[in-house]
Structures are given as C-alpha cells and as structure tokens.
Amino acid sequence: xxxxxxxxxxxxxxxxxxxxxxxxxxxxxxxxxxxxxxxxxxxxxxxxxxxxxxxxxxxxxxxxxxxxxxxxxxxxxxxxxxxxxxxxxxxxxxxxxxxxxxxxxxxxxxxxxxxxxxxxxxxxxxxxxxxxxxxxxxxxxxxxxxxxxxxxxxxxxxxxxxxxxxxxxxxxxxxxxxxxxxxxxxxxxxxxxxxxxxxxxxxxxxxxxxxxxxxxxxxxxxxxxxxxxxxxxxxxxxxxxxxxxxxxxxxxxxxxxxxxxxxxxxxxxxxxxxxxxxxxxxxxxxxxxxxxxxxxxxxxxxxxxxxxxxxxxxxxxxxxxxxxxxxxxxxxxxxxxxxxxxxxxxxxxxxx
Length: 352
What we know:
The chain is mainly alpha-helical. It has 3 domains: 2-51; 65-162, DNA polymerase, domain 1; 178-345, Intergrase catalytic core (hpI Integrase, Chain A), CATH 1.10.443.10. It is built from 14 helices and 6 strands. Strand 1 and strand 2 form a beta hairpin. The longest helix has 20 residues, at 131-150. The termini are far apart. The mean pLDDT is 85.
C-alpha cells in the first residue's frame, strides 16, 4: 500500500518521499528527512485509512471554524429557543478568535490559550469575565464541535472536550431572614403595582423563577385542585407546582380582579402581555431596607426554607425543577438537623 522513494532536493540533500495508495481514497504524499519518520507516517496513514479515520482528517482540512459555526448557527441554533441569543454571541466571539483556522488545526492547546484570553476580557461593568461565563463560551464551542464530529463527520474527535473548565465559585445562597421577609411582604402589599405582592408570595412559596411566574396564563392554574402546570421551563421539561396555603389564597384573591380578554395571570395594564415589575420590585426593596438581594434570591429563599424544614436534596430538586442534585447541594448545610435525624434513627434501629 505504501511505497518510499529516495529523492534529492534542490540543495542536493537526500529526502524520502512516501506515497500511500488505496482504492477509493486519494493518493497521500509526504516527504521526510529521515527514513524512520517516513515509515512511521506511512504506518499511521495506513492505519487511519483502515479504521476509517483518514476520511475525517481530510474533511477537517477542508473546513474552517467559520464554516462550522455558520452551519451550526443555521441548522442547530434555531432549535435552542431559550439559549440561541446568548450562544450566538458566544460563537461569534470564537469566530473572531479562531474562525480562519481549519478544523484540523484546532487543538486543545489552541482553545485553552483562547480561553485564557477570554477570561481576561473586561465586561461593560469594568470587570473580567467570570469563570461561569467563560465556561459557557467553552460549552457553546464544544457542542458545535461535537455536532461536527458525531453528525457531520467533519472531525475525528472534539478538541474542546479536553479543555479544562475554570473553577467556579460556590453558588450564591442569599435568603430572607424572618424579619426581612415580613418587611418585604408588607412593602409589596402597599405597592402601587397590584401584581407585585402575589408574584413575590408565589416566588417564596413555590421557588418558581420570575419568567415562569410572569409567563403564567390562567389555564395553567387549577385553583380548585391547588396546582400549577408549567408547560415551558428552563430545562425544557413539563413541571407540576403545588399551590397550597398562603399562595393559593393570594392567587384566589388576585383572580377576583382578572380582566376580561387578558389570559396572562399577571398582565400589563395596557396589553395582554406579561407585566414588568422591575421598577416596583426595586422600590419595594428600598422601602423595606433590604440590601444585596435580587428577585432570583426569592427562589434561593424558598429552597433554603425547604431545607431548614427537613426536605431532602432530592425533594428540593424536584420542587425547583432541577434534573440533578448538583444545583441544590448549596443548601445541604441548611438541612444538617434533618440529616442528623436520619442518621440517629438509623443508629437507634441497628444498635438496639
């Protein structure tokens, strides 16, 4: 399959030209100074052809990163409705950084180098990009290369897969104290916005995200059975949310001022579209004298209250709609009393 010929270059130096021929595959040529290198290359090419890897290598040489990103944005990104905008921005960055490289020339070392440069870029707030942001950029590129490997067969392996992700700080756990919660609820109740109070109550009692709450329609809610069905969630799965106690009462009261022809539970006064509560929310925080607190921290508060009242991590994950326990491990320290009780009951049973 492979033949090696001796040749002399223009300077009269001896060289070894390798030719690998196989039916159905274009002839492969390479020239080396040493015979051992020529033989090694020949063996590698022959093995790659036999295993079907050579075709992908050739494909990788024919396509650039720009071509990969353009095709990915056109064919794959439209199916990612919730993350498409962010991923387009991330992929555009990679396009600017390494778009001219052929896929064959993109190595783990190259991507790692660009990762470090990205981490030093300054955001509009004047701060370097966070490790979490850099990791999301890596994930966007990695998925594009994974599609090129598995579906398009442009590459033999994904070079981004081996790039080390940056260590992210432990997830924030900021929750309302009893006093803060009382003050916040009181200021929300007094807010000119008729929606703010029931929205905050719903967030605290269910752990729902702001977008999930403001996107609710009346047909998503069953006030008689006490449940909410979320058809569209962040992880793409349908979720049932129990609606009980104070939150159920608050929504029943809110339903009394439902406007005809408006199907959103919390709709704008002018149009049948979700209300925007940013201004009312910030005003309520200021009047309640609560600092360093975001709306999403109401979700952390709900999870923290669940943990402190004996819920397991699995139960918290189910309530919040997380697929894995990784995201709720930040609340583990709040359920120490519950964990101790479980261990104590086990010990009492086996050491009688």
